[in-house]
Amino acid sequence: QVQVVESGGGQVQAGGSLKLSCAASISISNFYAMGWYRQAPGKRRELVATFQGGGTKYADSMKGRFTISRDNAKNTVYLQMNSLKPEDTAVYYCNAKADYPKYLEVWGQGTQVTVSS
Known about the structure:
Helix content: under 10%
Number of helices: 0
Radius of gyration: 14 Å
Order of helices and strands: EEEEEEEEEEE
Shape: globular
Distance between the termini: 40 Å
Structural class: mainly beta
Largest sheet: 7 strands, mixed
């Protein structure tokens, strides 16, 4: 069973930084898309940043503050979050999608990020 597992969440003051990790149980080269989403209390889950189509995509509010990266040898995708704001408080989820030999979408269990003012 393919799994992705997040780590690195926690509590930080506004202006601080955190780095999240998402480790996959298989080679991440199997995925055509892999990245991060978040869900704040009472809000819909939203895209944060993702690798897709040979490039990267960021939500507008994260551009310049968040950076997604990957280590293929470790089967891990990272999310470096800088200049954190209280509105960044959410559960952050890793998501991965593959389409060979069949479509597969995997979500992690989520990791809590809390930014205090």
